[in-house]
């Protein structure tokens, strides 16, 4: 298959490194020689059956994502297709740049190409290694034809990968949800590190033991097994608040854990720990015996 890639940074470069095993590639990057020539752009627009957009989407001071690079790339591509009288509806544009949910649908309203969203899950330092070890591929497409075309790009290289077929906006959310979950994991680890440091506990020993717990990273069903939001029961509320109290007592303010508890109080409909015997001091076993 003839494929184009716009943007040859760590995402586009790693994508090209793997896809060249099974496809003919046409690369263009306006900032990187030798990929920035007009011929590169013309060949990409003329010969590609599908084109990956792998340009940066930086963050503005407000936190909003700046999509200038995506719009510039697609506008430039559209101009080239017009020059050669190519019907843009015959070309599948695959957004690989990170974009919030709904972005690709908006692009589809503005530009006359076919569109799909295909998130990457690459670490910048190990992008090629991660790409070569791809074990899951998320295909975000609103049309079956686009989904199948995108699948056929990857199948020759990753026949045993897990393929997830969803809408474009769902695929965009999957990327953000994965990154936010990982960021939260890092933040919690740092919070626990500070509490261990304040209490004179070896964090690495705690970390190594936690990683043996197969539940870690799996408690993400919403609502939970009890049909409610957040967490309840006897242990989680009690243990979280105990750790908050301990950290404060050792002169460390656990802001993240405090916020976790505030969030739980906000979303939880049934604070069932208040009624479970032994969960609170006002409802402990000794009190019930009086």
At a glance:
The strands form 2 sheets. A 5-stranded parallel beta sheet has the order 2-1-3-4-5, with helices on both faces. The protein has a two-stranded parallel ribbon with strand order 6-7.
For the biggest sheet, the summary is: 5 strands, parallel
The proportion of strand residues reads 5-15%
The secondary-structure element order is EHEHEHEHEHEHEHHHHH
CATH class of the largest domain: Alpha Beta
Task: Write down the overall mean pLDDT.
Answer: 91
Structural class, by secondary structure, is alpha/beta
Can you count the beta strands? 7
| N/C terminus separation | 79 Å
CATH architecture designation of the largest domain: 3-Layer(aba) Sandwich
Query: Which homologous superfamily in CATH is the superfamily of the largest domain?
Result: NAD(P)-binding Rossmann-like Domain
Helices, by number, come to 11
CATH level 3 topology of the largest domain: Rossmann fold
Portion of residues within helices = 40-55%
Radius of gyration: 25 Å
Spatial order of the strands forming the largest sheet = 2-1-3-4-5
